[in-house]
Each structure stands twice: as structure tokens, then as C-alpha cells.
Amino acid sequence: MKIDEIYNEYDKMFVSNKMPFIKCKTCGRNYYYPRTVCPFCGGSNIEIVSASGTGEIYSCTEFNHGFYGIIKFQEGFGAYMDIDGNSVSTGRKIRIKFKEIKGKVLPYASVD
Amino acid sequence: MIRGFAEAVYKNYDGSVYDLMTEALEKALEMASLERKDIDGFMTTFLPGVFDGNIYMHFFPDQLCGYLGITPKYIDSLEYGGPSVLSALWRAERLIKEGLAENILLLFGGKGSDVRKRKQTVDSFEKLYPEVTNTPYRHLINLYNNMNPVSDYALAAERHKKIYGSTDSQRAELIVKQRKNANRSGYSMFTGDLSVDDVLKSSIISSPLHLLEIVYPVDGFHAFIVSGKAGKLRGIKILNYGEAHQSLLPPEVDDITITPAIESSKNFRNEISKCDFYELYDSFSITVMLQLENTGIVPAGQSGKFIEKNSISVDGDLPLNTGGGSINRGQPAYMSGSVLLYEALLQMNEMASGNQVKSPGKVFINGIGGWSRNHSVSLILGD
Known about the structure:
The structure holds 2 protein chains of 2 kinds.
Chain A: H1 3-15, E1 20-24, E2 30-31, E3 46-50, E4 54-63, E5 66-73, E6 78-84, E7 93-101, E8 104-111
Parallel strand pairs in A: 6-8
Antiparallel strand pairs in A: 1-2, 1-3, 4-5, 4-7, 5-6, 7-8
Chain B: E1 2-10, H1 17-32, E2 41-44, H2 60-68, E3 74-77, H3 84-97, E4 103-111, H4 112-116, H5 139-142, H6 150-164, H7 168-185, H8 196-201, E5 204-206, E6 209-210, E7 217-227, E8 237-245, H9 261-264, H10 269-272, E9 277-280, H11 285-294, H12 303-309, H13 325-329, E10 331-332, H14 337-348, E11 363-369, E12 375-382
Parallel strand pairs in B: 2-3, 2-4, 7-10, 9-11
Antiparallel strand pairs in B: 1-7, 4-7, 5-6, 8-12, 11-12
Helix pairs in contact in B: 7-12
């Protein structure tokens, strides 16, 4: 797989409101930030999968009139993203939604 | 050994970055009793925006040497932010030992004000250039509401609160104690009375971090001349050294309160406790706390309580960031490594006047670099 293929697939999935991640078929770990080899084991037998879109806030910060943080997903991978909702705090459960930022559709976390 | 060291640091320097670096170089040459022609090695670093606003400069070290009139046999540029200068010192010592150079100039800094005035950091500077992406992760990071490294260290502070129960007051206590060191030193940029309340009442920039817990980017250069001979100075050298780098992003690690400082310091933990004073990277209050824990000076999660109970002044239980740290001295070009090294050299050469550590035998220095804390350099200086 080439890096641009990963980004193209991610962008397609974002547009259809699906949360992608990469599954390493060698070590079984999951990750989100695109690399053509697994950052945990170096294996290149990877596939792009759609996540459940649920997880929890690992840590968050209120910044520039909004929340931003690290989300740990049910499938075990983590990602940075904006967080929305009435009572944002570390440990809260979230569900993924999508929004357009500067012409790109991207996921964000919404507190249930 | 270090034969000359100097700083040229200003809150706002009106002139060009080239004048600023010249000032630092000339002062260091004077201390070392050397001339430009004697410098045969050169090490530096580049960060976006701090060289008169340029996002990039090609053949950067060569351009600086050409401008400064230095003809080195050895050129290097180390690209991991704050602690790069500490690694440069170690590499320079080894090059000299190998006979590859005699007098190596480490020149680190730039103008932080150019970036600061545009309301960015070196790590978010690309936001000013929509056509530029500075990471392999493209829009997956930089389109969100963040301004690294501030927002990322805020996440570390928040996580530390959550798992260890550390408090905003404990972090503020560190800031107050570093200010006391700054007041006593007499050579700090930011001075005056400061209370825990003052810190907690300063605006929250990225929760839970307050304005006064965040280092202030300034303009400045430090020049260190590493040589086989110490000249007029004490002949100190690196006694223990470790550097560690990690490639995972913070969302990909299990615990963001763990930095590579665990790894960079692991081979000489017993020696760290025997040092007479400590200079720990202080980009933020939480940075110091993580290093206290990660280098084994205090147990994991206990840094807040430790700071509340102990004195960090030059005659205290654990003399720490003795000149007030870069939180009070300013952070030249978004890198505090040179500030730590400069203070360590002042103390070790007993040039810190009223703020002098008594009989300083050894100092432990730790630097953390990269917006995501991916780099750590640990070292002990002594005879």
C-alpha cells in the first residue's frame, strides 16, 4: 500500500461519515495516523477498517473557545481531535461525528 | 571542555537575527581568547519562523558559517528542538577526542518574537501557510483546534491530574519557587513577587495551563565553544550521557505522562541523586514535573507533593532551575536547552554571584524536545 492510497481511502470514508483506522495483520495492533508499515511491529500486511466510532476522552483541554483532546477508541487506537458537547471532561464516553474544516471532512468527538 | 560561553537575549530585539548571533559569538570568543579563524567545527539548529521570519532556509549551517566568516572542518545541524544543544555538546566532546576538530562552536537560538507576534509557535507556524504541511500526518492533525506545543502539554497536565491527583496549586507552587530563584539571581528577565494565587488568577491559555506556567518566547542566541582546553574556565566535561527518541504520537502511547527521559536517564540513575544541583527543561510547569518523575528524582505521580514540601533554592533540599529557569529568563527561539546549559556553566564556574550553589561538584541537566515530547537528553557535568 502507498501512503496516498491510505489518505484517499481515509478521505472517502470521512465523506461517507465512517471512522477509519489501520489494522496490522502481523501483530494485531490498530493505529490511526497513516503509515504504510505498522509503527508497533514494522509489518506491512495492513488493512484499512471502519471503526465503531465510540470511545472515551483520554485527556482534553479547553483551548481557543473549544475543546481538543486525545480520544481512545473502542478498537484500541488513539487520535487527536476536536471535542464537542455540554460536559466535556476526561473519562467521558464519546461518539464520532463529522464536520468540514477548511474544505476537508474530518471526524470530531461528541460527548454522549 | 567548554572554553567560552555567552548569551545575547532580549525580550524584543529590533534588529536582524544575524546581528543577534554575532553578539553571542563575539562574547564567547572573547571569553575563550579565540578568534573566528580558530573555530573549526560548527553546530546549530533551525526552527521555522525564528530566522527573520523564514519558514525554511536551505543549506542552513553553511549559510551561517559563510556569514560569520567561519571555515569549519566539521558541520552539523541537530533537529530535535530544545535539547539539541545538549546533544551537540556531547558530540562536540567526542569529535575533539577523535581529533576531528579543535574548537567547535555551538550556536543556538533565533528570534521568538517574530513567531510570537503572529500568534503562533514554531510548531504551529505552518498554519500561516495553507500550502505547507510540516508533518506526514497532513490535515489529520493541523486542521484541528490546537496550537502545539501548548495544547499538547496541557493534555499531559490534565492526564497527570486525572491519574495522580496532582493539582493546579502544586504546579503554581513550582512557578512561584522558580520565581524566587529568579529574584535572587539578579539576572532574570522576569522578576518581582509572585504568589500561587497570582499564577492561578492568570488567564487559562489551554486548560489546565495558566499563562504564568508557560514559557515566554524571546529573541536570543547562546554560543558555546567546546575545546580540548578549558582556557580560563574550569575544565568540566560530560560524565554521564543518554539521549532517547520515540516515534509514536502521544495518542498512540499508553501513558502520556511518560517521556523518553525514562530511557535517556536509565543508565546512571544512581549518579543523578548525587548531583549538587539540577537544571530541568521548563517549557511548562508540567514539563519539570514529568522529568522529576521520569528521571527517578521522585516516584511517579509524586512531583507535585515534592515541590510543595521542598525548597529548590541554591541552598535548598534540591537546588533546581537555579537561575529561575527559562520560565523567568525567557525562551530564545522556542528552545530552553541553551538556557539550562548556560546556567549550569555559570554555577559550575562560580560566576553566579549572590545565587551561587556552594561548592558545585556535579550538575544534572535534562532537556525535553519536540511538541510531542519525543526527545530527551540527560547528562551530568563535572570534573
